[in-house]
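TL;DR need C-alpha cells for one chain.
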Amino acid sequence: DPRETVTAQQADLHLPIKNDGDVSLFNGLLKFLIEQQCIDSEYIHSYTDGFDALTEEVSDLRYDVTNLTSSIGISEEKLTTFFQWFAQSSTAITLFCQGVNQAENGVDKGNAIINAHLASGKIAKSGCGPFSITGQPNAMGGREVGGLANQLAVHRAFDAGSIKQVQAFWDSPEIATQPGLKAVDLFEAVERSEIKVLWI
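>> reply
TL;DR here they are.
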C-alpha cells in the first residue's frame, strides 16, 4: 500500500512500492543475497530444488538496485538499506496479506517472498519465515489440518491414496472418504432439515 498510513509512519523503513512491484522487490532482494554471499548454501542443498535456475532468473539486470529504483519507485538508498537489513539480520518474518495472495500474479508474489526466505535459511525456525495473513481467523491453519469441507489435511484430495496416507499419518481408525458440504450447500442442507447439529 503506497499510502503513508499510521502504521507506515511508525515503521523504521517504509517502502511504498509502485503497484505490482512486489515480485521485483523480492527478486531484487534475492539477487542481492546471492551477490553478497548471504545465502544459506547448506539449507538450499538440503531443502530446495531448482536454485540454479532461480539464480539465473534473478541475475537479470532489471533486478539490479539501480534499475529497481525506477521500476518500483523506491530510492537506491532505501532499497540498499532494506536488502542489507534482511541480509544481516539473523531473523526475518515477512507478513503479507490479501494484496499479495489475491493478486492476479499472487503465486509469483508469494514465491518471490518465500524464495528469499529459503535462500537465506530464514525459515522454519523461531523468528523466521514468510507469514501469510489470511482474511479470516486461522483460515490457513484450518486448511492445513483438514478444516475445509472439500479437502483432507494439507490440501489433499479425497482420492484413495490421499485418504490412506492421511489416515496412516494420523493413525486414525476412521476418516472421511468423501467431501463434506461447502458453506452455501450447508445452508441449503440446513433449510432442508438435513443437518442435525450446527456449531457456529
